[in-house]
């Protein structure tokens, strides 16, 4: 008996070899692609090329999905969904340049400062997603989660190893800095993290507090100034003083 002109035995062998080599995508499509290739008189090379392309695409897709899970974004927000006309103070061209990720290669930071609902988290996540699509490792934390992790690591004697790990990833996103104040002790841990990544790895920070009020966040003007100095040196600060997008979504009473 034949299947597309080949014996079942041959097909079984092919399936076994593809499985052994973990070429799962090819295994799913090679019979159908062979039929298409025969119908369209595709050359052997082009048939092989099609199979390999599909396998590579599936590998990239799995790697992107894995990185998306590891990044722990609270929601998926795409740059394509951001309405720049609603927030005209934001330099759209610069955001698009940043989304092409040159800032990562240069180890520069991005700071989104502004009132609630102006799109800080949305922009931070969407640039993070662009970085993942370029196969970079990204981690998203709220400032509160991050400082709690650092404090727990310190108590259990793992601070240096956690700082090393956070120092190595390609892009660290710290969201909502300023909604909760840090104790002097946690502010120092935060400072250690910022120093670790300084001029080595990029950070995106979002905050509702203008820089003049960062002393309040860290309960210490000196530590706040040291943190700000390092974050701002080689950075792209965006001060977004527009309307909340959440207000736009509230239906007006008649
Ligand atoms: N310009 C915009 N275009 C499309 N959606 C937007 C825009 N700005 C904000 N949004 C959406 O509005 C909601 C609030 O935005 P976001 O969470 O980014 O605000 P935020 O500045 O981080 O506010 P907060 O300080 O309260 O955390 C989100 O669902 C976001 O996707
Ligand atoms: Mg936010």
Outline the low-pLDDT stretches.
none
The CATH superfamily label of the largest domain reads: P-loop containing nucleotide triphosphate hydrolases
Distance between the termini: 73 Å
Number of domains: 2
Q: Note the total helix count.
A: 12
Task: Report on this structure.
56% of the residues lie in helices and 13% in strands. The protein is an alpha/beta fold. The protein folds into 2 domains: 2-71, no CATH class; 81-249, Rossmann fold, CATH 3.40.50.300. The strands form 2 sheets. A 5-stranded parallel sheet has the order 4-5-6-3-7. The protein has a two-stranded antiparallel ribbon with strand order 1-2. Strand 5 (171-177), helix 9 (184-197) and strand 6 (202-207) form a beta-alpha-beta unit. Helix 7 packs across helix 9 (184-197). Bound molecules: adenosine-5'-triphosphate and magnesium ion. The site of adenosine-5'-triphosphate has 19 residues, from helix 6 and helix 12.
């Amino acid at each position: 008996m034949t299947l597309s002109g080949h014996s079942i035995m041959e097909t079984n062998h092919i399936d076994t070899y593809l499985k052994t080599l973990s070429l799962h995508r090819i295994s799913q499509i090679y019979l159908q692609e062979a039929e298409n290739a025969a119908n369209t008189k595709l050359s052997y090379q082009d048939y092989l090329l099609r199979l390999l392309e599909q396998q590579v695409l599936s590998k990239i897709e799995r790697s992107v999905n894995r990185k998306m899970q590891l990044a722990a974004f609270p929601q998926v927000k795409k740059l394509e969904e951001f309405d720049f006309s609603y927030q005209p103070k934001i330099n759209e061209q610069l955001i698009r340049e940043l989304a092409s990720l040159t800032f990562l290669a240069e180890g520069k930071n991005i700071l989104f400062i502004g009132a609630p609902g102006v799109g800080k988290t949305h922009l931070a996540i969407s640039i993070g997603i662009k970085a993942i699509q370029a196969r970079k490792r990204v981690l998203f934390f709220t400032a509160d989660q991050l400082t709690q992790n650092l404090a727990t690591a310190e108590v259990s004697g793992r601070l240096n190893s956690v700082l090393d790990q956070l120092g190595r990833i390609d892009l660290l996103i710290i969201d909502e800095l300023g909604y909760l104040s840090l104790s002097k002790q946690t502010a120092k841990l935060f400072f250690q993290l910022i120093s670790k990544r300084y001029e080595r790895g990029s950070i995106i920070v979002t905050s509702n507090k203008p820089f003049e009020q960062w002393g309040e966040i860290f309960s210490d003007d000196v530590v706040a100034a040291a943190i700000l100095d390092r974050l701002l040196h080689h950075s792209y600060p965006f001060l977004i003083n527009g309307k909340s997008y959440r207000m736009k979504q509230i239906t007006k009473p008649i």
